[in-house]
Write a structure and sequence with these properties.
There is one protein chain. With about 475 residues, this protein is of the alpha/beta class. The chain folds into three domains: about 170 residues, FAD/NAD(P)-binding domain; about 140 residues, Protoporphyrinogen oxidase, mitochondrial, domain 2 (Polyamine Oxidase, Chain A, domain 2, Alpha-Beta Complex); about 100 residues, protoporphyrinogen ix oxidase, domain 3 (Orthogonal Bundle). It is built from 16 helices and 20 strands. The strands form five sheets. It has a seven-stranded mixed sheet with strand order 8-7-16-17-18-15-19, sandwiched between helices. Strands 10-2-1-14-20 form a five-stranded parallel sheet, covered by helices on one side. Strands 5-9-6 form a three-stranded antiparallel sheet. α1 packs parallel to α16, α2 crosses α16 and α11 packs antiparallel against α12.
């Protein structure tokens, strides 16, 4: 019977353990499965905090229903009936620019009417499908900022692309790799010669498939409806932890992996516990995996150490509804950098999901920091609260002390897929192949979202199945 150890009890480690157990059931194999988590609780960055009647998300607040793996996992766990889709209001998104909230255009006509981008900026964007815009040179790992300036212009970068990147990655487009961060966009340019041409051809293809009665998904890429649970997104990781049974050991911080005597790998924990395993899956962040693997393979450790992380401070404010005049009719907003705000944006959580605030109250969630403002993680609570209050007064006109506040810091919040990330992953794959039974998974590599983590966990279980 093979001994399998999963290191890391966030969504990636928990989902990997679940897929492994299902794979064993299919094969009729038996394993001794242990999951080690350094914190006293599982879930990683996923935590739903109920306080004073408010339900605050410590990290991510859900997943998009446009990709199948997470929905299939929920069905297999028997919790599909608990899923909670965000309200239709959540489709309205805003950008704070030029001192006001501008609704993000959702159609060509609304884009033409929108004051978000100036007339010269719109004309520059209109040139995107023309032969005047050159394609990226083959093999160049282009930054997202360079791509946006080349294809859409500087104003589109500033007012559309950069805020989007801050909302998804908390990242800086000036050093993020296009092909690693948004591979679908890079693929569209290579295949169709431009984004507008790609969208037009894909839209025609979709209309044909609909006319032929085929079932099709959105051709535009991500899309989907933000989905969570009434109890908060932690309900998913809690259910996975229960399904893992007695194999979970919390409060077990792994300090190193070395060659074993009775099995390929010896795992040492900071509490002095030592165990051996035939197969090890490291589902911890890249920086933690780097420290764990220093002795076993310094080359792998060095590669992992080069994956940077952006910090993030999440600030939840609760108010009585009567004290806030803003309609809060949407998902929330992201801010253009030159507006000088301390926050990256604010989500209107209680407008997206029911049960997030007490009756006749609202819940706002602001993000501060990211790759562009790394020093904000070190601000004390009073300064954080002061800055957020100033910013939401400027953006939404809320001039009131919140009735409730929660401040949650993540010094290593989101991995950054900077230029060279793809090359690092290629080298990492070659090096890790030298260690049979050693696997890496998680959001440090090929996708940062919850859906990406679940999909990566399923792939990892599939890859190691022949070793069981």
């Amino acid at each position: 019977m093979k001994r399998v150890t999963v290191i890391g009890g966030g969504i990636s480690g928990l989902a990997t353990a679940w897929f492994l157990k299902r794979k064993c059931e299919e094969k009729g194999a038996r394993i001794e499965l242990t999951l080690l988590e350094k914190e006293k609780f599982t879930g990683g960055k996923i935590r739903s905090i109920r306080e004073d009647g408010y339900l605050c998300e410590w990290g991510p607040n859900g997943f998009l229903d446009s990709k199948p793996q997470t929905l299939e996992l929920c069905r297999a766990l028997g919790i599909s009936g608990r899923l909670l889709r965000s309200s239709d209001n959540a489709r309205k998104r805003y950008i704070f620019s030029d001192g006001r909230l501008n609704r993000l255009p959702e159609s060509p006509l609304s884009f033409l009417k929108s004051p978000l981008v100036s007339l010269p900026g719109k004309i520059r964007m209109a040139l995107e499908p023309t032969p005047f815009i050159e394609k990226s040179p083959e093999g160049v790992d282009e930054t997202l900022a360079d791509f946006a300036r080349r294809r859409l212009g500087s104003e589109a970068l500033e007012k559309l692309i950069a805020p989007m990147v801050s909302g998804i990655f908390a990242g800086n487009p000036e050093n993020m790799s296009l092909i690693s961060s948004f591979p679908r966009i890079a693929e569209l340019e290579r295949e169709y010669g431009g984004l507008v041409r790609a969208m037009m051809k894909l839209a025609r293809k979709k209309r044909r498939e609909i006319a032929e009665g085929k079932v099709v998904s959105s051709a535009a890429g991500p899309g989907g409806v933000l989905t969570s649970f009434r109890e908060g997104i932690q309900y998913l990781t809690d259910t996975l932890a229960i399904s893992a049974g007695d194999g979970i050991r919390t409060g077990s911080a792994v300090s190193s992996i070395t060659p074993g005597s009775l099995a390929p790998y010896m795992i040492r924990c900071e509490d002095g516990n030592v165990s051996e395993a035939d197969i090890v899956v490291i589902a911890a962040p890249a920086y933690a995996a780097s420290a764990i693997l220093t002795t076993l393979d310094p080359a792998i450790s060095s590669i992992l150490d080069k994956i940077p992380y952006a910090s993030m401070t999440v600030v939840s404010f609760g108010y009585e509804r009567r004290r806030v005049n803003h309609p809060l009719d949407g998902f929330g907003y992201l801010a253009v950098k030159r507006e000088g705000l301390s926050i990256l944006g604010t989500l209107w959580d209680s407008s997206m999901f029911e049960n997030r605030a007490p009756e006749r109250c609202i819940l706002l969630r602001s993000m501060m920091g990211g790759a562009c403002f790394p020093g904000h993680i070190d601000l004390d609570d009073d300064e954080v609260k002061r800055r957020v209050m100033l910013d939401i007064k400027k953006t939404m006109g809320i001039d009131a002390e919140p009735d409730f506040s929660g401040i949650y810091r993540h010094r290593f919040a989101i991995p950054q897929y900077t230029v060279g990330h793809g090359e690092r992953l290629a080298t990492l794959s070659r090096e890790i192949a030298k260690h049979e039974g050693l696997f890496l998974t998680g959001n440090s590599y090929r996708g940062i979202g919850l859906n990406d983590c679940v999909a990566a966990a399923a792939r990892t279980a599939e890859e190691l199945a022949p070793l069981l």
